[in-house]
Amino acid sequence: MKALVTGGTGFVGSHLIDSLLKRGDEVTALVRTPAKAAGLADRGVRLVRGDLNALDALREAAAGTDVIYHVAGVVAARNDTEFLQANRDGTANLLAAARESGSPRFVLVSSMAAAGPATRGVPLVGGEPPRPVTAYGRSKLAGEEVVRSGPLPWVILRPPMVYGPRDAEVLKLFKMAKWGIAPVFGKGDQELSAIFGPDLAEALIAAGTSANTLGKTYLPCHPEVFTSGAFARQIGRAVGRDVLVVSVPEMLGRGLLAAIGGAAKLTGTASVLSSEKADEFFEAAWTGSPAELIADTGWRPNTDIAQGLTETMAWYRAEKWI
Asked: Are the C-beta atoms of residues 217 and 158 closer than 8 Å to each other?
C-alpha cells in the first residue's frame, strides 16, 4: 500500500512511519526541512519538501497514494486565526491536492479537544455533540468539518493525551518528578484517558485499512481511566521516586496561566499555556472509550499507563533526554 504521512518528523508521525515501514508499505513524507528527515530517507521513505500551504508540493506528495495520514498540525498559536490557518485551511489544501490525484482514503488525526470534555464517570464514545473549550479544540473541529464535507473517503480519530518515547511534552513532568515534585491542577481528581504513541500508530493504520471505518469518528485510547494525581504518582514510580503531589488551586492556576499567556502575547510568541487553557485543565474529565474502534477493526491498545511510562522512561534514559 502507498501511504502519505504529514507530520512524519514529529512524535506521532514518526511512530506511524515506523509501523507503516514494518508492514512493508511504500511511504511518502511531506517535510518542511529535509535535513531533519534524513534518517527517514535512509530507511526508504520518499521525501517531498513543502508544507500545508505549498500546493505543488501537496500534489506531488499525494500523487498515486492509497491512503493519506494527516498528522501535521499546530498545538500552539498566537491567536485563533493562526490555529485555523494551520488546522483547518491546511487540511483543506491537502484534501484539494489529493483529490486531483485520485480518491485516496483520508485519515485525519484530530484531538479529543475537538470533542470537548467528558462527564465524570461517563467516557465519550464519539457521537456526542462537540463542545471544544479552547481555540485549539475549535480549530481541530473546523478541520474535521472540512474533511466530512470534502470529496474523499475519510476516517477521523480523536486521541486524548498521547505519550511515549520521543515525546517532549510529558518529558517535562518526568524532569520534575526527578526532583520529587509533581504539580497537578485542582485536587488531582481529574479523570483522564491516554494512548501510548506506538499503540496510536497501530490504531491509525487499522482505521486506514479496515473496510468498516469509512465515515466514522473514533476515540483511540486505552480503556484504563486514571486521575491526574495517579498519573503524576505513576511517573514518579517510573523515575524511581516517591513524588510529592502538589495541588494547584483553581484560582492560582488560572492566574498563572493568564500570566503566561499574557507574556507570550507581549513577546509575539506562541504558547500552549494561556488563560483559555485553564478551561481544559480544570474540567472534571477528559476520557473516551475505544470500544467502537476495537469492534470495527480488531485493534487493541496493548500498553497501559504503568507499562507505557516505564518504557518511556527507559527510552528517555537511553537517549539521554533525562
From this structure: yes
Give the pLDDT of residue 262: 82
Q: Which of 107, 161, 112, 114 is nearest to 139 (CA)?
A: 114
User: Are 214 and 155 spatial neighbours (Cβ–Cβ below 8 Å)?
Assistant: yes
Cα angle value 78/80/84 (rounded, 5°):
110
> In whole angstroms, what is the distance from residue 177 CA to residue 233 CA?
9
Q: List the Cα angle 44/48/49 in 5-degree steps.
A: 130
Length of the chain: 322
| Residue 135 contacts residue 77 (beta carbons within 8 Å) | yes
Mean pLDDT lowest among 184-188, 259-263, 295-299 = 259-263
φ, ψ at 314 (rounded to 5°): -60, -40
Contact (CB, 8 A) for 47 and 106: no
- Give buried/exposed letters for 66-85 (b at 16+ CB in 10 A, else e): bbbbbbbbbeebeeeeebbb
Q: Could you give the residue numbers annotated as active site?
A: 136
**What is the rounded distance in angstroms from the CA atom of residue 179 to the CA atom of residue 192?**
24
Residue type, 238: A
Give the residue from 152, 155, 204, 195 showing the smallest Cα distance to 25: 204
Amino acid at 164: G
Helix or strand run (H / E) with residue 162: strand 161-163
Q: In the predicted model, what is the mean pLDDT of the chain? A: 94
Closest CA to 177 of 254, 218, 110, 233: 233
Q: Is 172 exposed, middle or buried, given 0-12, 13-18 or 19+ CB atoms closer than 10 A? A: exposed
